[in-house]
Amino acid sequence: MKSVDPGENFESWREAAKILLTDGVPPGEVLWENTPGLFSEMNLAENPETYAALKVPADFVEMARNVCCHCDPSKWGLLYRILWRITKEGERKLCAIASDADVSKALMMQKNVRREIHKLHAFVRFKLIDTDKETGRERYAAWFEPDHYIVEAGTPFFRNRFANMNWSVFTPKGCAHWDGGRLMFSAGISENPVEHPDALEAAWRTYYRSIFNPARVKVKAMQAEMPKKYWKNLPEAGLIGELIEESRQRVRGMHGEELRPAKPMPRNAYLGRLREMSEVAICAGPLEGQSLVSKLLATGDV
Q1: Domain stop point among 90, 119, 148
Q2: 65 assigned to some structural domain
């Protein structure tokens, strides 16, 4: 049995898996753990470049990159087991078999990670921290509490969107920092360092109130898309209860209003002719009506 440290991300796990595969170590003889265990520990620092590169399907690489972000520590063994089956047992199309037990579990992990990245993009709210006196460049920071290790995978989105300002995203599972030239990562922190409110929070509340549509609110659907665990870090979340109650009152008020008379049809010869044609077509039946309409269009009567 070999005790192997997978590291923290896809790249470190890939190097370990490449060595294990080259040495022919089956999945059942590998114990993936970040701390040394009772079994023999493999030294991955010894000339990893001497191990041959492995060609694997692109769909496995994409899956593995996502699954490596999941919080479940069983992910390392699961991925190595799938990789072993692909490379050693000839199951090259394994990742396309969603009914396979290993693949099904990996796909569920991938789905959870992708969903969390989407939440990161949707629910991060940056706050202005300071402004560099020499360059005038503003620095912003945000706090997010993910379930999975998605900081490295998800924060390049903000680098592309907010390249003109310095920013940091702090989370318990890793932090990201952009200085205008490099995107850097650091260890996670346990507490929110950017709790103080600023003018951006008021702007977010104003914007949220202005786009809130009382006639279309569906509380269960909203909470499914924006779970309550994210609310405490959203400046607009304090308005949700108030706006929901207001929406119910407004909807009840709209239902209680008397029906307004229908507006008269506009006096437009073209629209009137189209209306007559539709009535003729309905009375004549589908085939005859279609033929009649075609003749009218051909003669220019419309």
Answers
A1: 119
A2: yes
